[in-house]
Amino acid sequence: MGQDAFMEPLSSTVGIFLCKIYFLLLAGVCLGLKVTVPSHTVHGIRGQALYLPVHYGFRTPASGIQIIWLFERPHTMPKYLLGSVNESVVPDLEYQHKFTMMPPNASLLINPLQFTDEGNYIVKVNIQGNGTLSSSQKIQVTVDDPVMKPVVQSHPDSGAVEYVGNITLTCQVKGGTRLVYQWRKNGKPVCINSSHSFSPQNNTLWIVPVTKEDIGNYSCLVSNPVSEVESDVITPTIYYGPYGLQVNSDKGQKLGEVFTVDLGEAILFDCSADSYPPNTYSWIQRSDNTTYVIKHGPRLEVTSENVAQKTADYLCCAYNNMTGRRDEARFTVVITSVGHEDALGDFGIYEFVAFPDASGIPRMPNRSGPAPDGVTGQDFHGTVYEVIQHIPAQQQDNNMTVVMSWPQASMTKGKASRRLPGKNSSVTSKA
C-alpha cells in the first residue's frame, strides 16, 4: 500500500508534464508558424550560383521577424553566416560578399559556389508577437564539377577471335567529381555474367572470352549528382564462324543434298555461311577418281551440257582465315532429260555413306590438265564415302539396292569408294 501511495504523485507529475508538452505543440500548430523547403538535399555546380529557396508562414500578429542562417560541416559547430531583423540584414563580415538574403524572404543565394561550401545549411525563423515562435529547417548542399564526355577504348585494337581472345573496354573521363559508371550494349545496361566483369569503379569492362553474342554497340554512361553524359558507341571487332554453311540454287529440284536439273539448263549455286570476316569459298568437283578445285568464290554456275555424266558431285568449302575454322557442304547434281523420258533411272533416294579417312590412305592425285575457270587443281585429304541410290519398289529388280559409282553413275551391285576433301564427316540425305 505504501508503494501505491508513492507511485500516485509520480504518475500525476508525469501526466502534467506530458500535458504541458502537448499544449505547447498544439499552441505552435494553432499559431501556425511553419518553415518549409522544397528539398532537404540540393546539388550545386562549382563556380556557379546556388539558390536555396525557403518558405515560411504564420497566423499570429507579429511585431518582429528574425531570420538566421547557419552553416555546419560534419563534426564541427554551426557557424553564423548572416541574419536579419525585419528587413535589416546583418552579415558575418567574413562572408558578406558571398551570401545574399532579401528579407522578409528567407531564401539564401550562394555565389560563387566552391567545394568548401559543401555542408549543411540551417535556416531559423523567429516570430515576435504575444510570445516568441521559432521554427527551423536544414538543407544539405553538395558541390560537384559536371561530367565531361567520356571516351571508350577497346583493347586489343585488332579485335579478338571467338572463344580464344579477350576484350577490355575502358571508359576515360577527363573531368567531373563523384563519377558513377554504367556500361551499355545496344542501349541496354550490361550485367555481370560468366564472361562479363567490371573493375571496382566500373570504369573497365572485361569480356573473357569473347563470343559471337558479344557483338554489338557498347557505350559508357557516366553520371554524378549534377550531370550525365554518354560516350560515343564503339563496336569491338570479334572474329567468328563459319556457321550454318548451306548451298542453294536458283532453279532445279532439291532433295536433301541432291539437285535435279533438266538437260540443257544452266544452274547457279550459291554457297553461304555466317562468318566474320567473310569466308573464302572453294568449289571442288569429283571426276575420274580425282578431286580438284574448279572455282573460288561464293557462286558456281553449272551448265548441264558440259556435264559428261548424268550425275556429278561437288563440294563447297568455306574457310575463315582469322579463326582458322572451315566447314564444307557436299551435294550431287543429277541431269535429267527434257520431259523425263529417260529420267526414271535417276530418281530414288540418295544416301551418303561416309567412312573416316584412315591415316594409311594416300592422297588422291592431282588432275593433270587445268581446271575450269583457270583454277589449278590441288591435293586434298578427306573422307572416303559412297553414294547409294535406293530405287523405288516398283522399279527394283529383286529388291536390289543400286550403288552409284561416280561420276559414271552406272548401276551396279558393287560398291565404289571415293575421296572428298575436308573433315571426316558424313552427310546423309533421305527422302
From TrEMBL:
UniProt keyword terms in alphabetical order: ADP-ribosylation, Cell cycle, Cell division, Cytoplasm, Cytoskeleton, Disulfide bond, Glycoprotein, Golgi apparatus, Immunoglobulin domain, Membrane, Mitosis, Repeat, Signal, Transmembrane, Transmembrane helix
Question: Would you name any one GO CC term?
Answer: Golgi membrane
Q: Which residues belong to any copy of the Ig-like domain?
A: 150-235, 236-332
PANTHER family (UniProt xref): HEPACAM FAMILY MEMBER 2, HEPACAM FAMILY MEMBER 2-RELATED
Any one of the GO BP annotations: centrosome cycle
* UniProt-annotated stretches for the region Disordered: 410-431
Q: Which InterPro entries match?
A: HEPACAM_domain, Ig-like_dom, Ig-like_dom_sf, Ig-like_fold, Ig_sub, Ig_sub2, Ig_V-set
Location(s) in or outside the cell: Cytoplasm, Cytoskeleton, Microtubule organizing center, Centrosome; Cytoplasm, Cytoskeleton, Spindle; Golgi apparatus membrane; Midbody
Question: How is the protein disposed in the membrane?
Answer: Single-pass type I membrane protein
Chief place where the protein resides: cytoplasm
Xref: Pfam families: Ig_3 (PF13927), V-set (PF07686)
Report the superkingdom from the record: Eukaryota
Q: What is the lineage of its organism?
A: Eukaryota, Metazoa, Chordata, Craniata, Vertebrata
Q: What is this protein called?
A: HEPACAM family member 2
| Coiled-coil regions listed | none
Role: Required during prometaphase for centrosome maturation. Following poly-ADP-ribosylation (PARsylation) by TNKS, translocates from the Golgi apparatus to mitotic centrosomes and plays a key role in the formation of robust microtubules for prompt movement of chromosomes: anchors AKAP9/CG-NAP, a scaffold protein of the gamma-tubulin ring complex and promotes centrosome maturation.
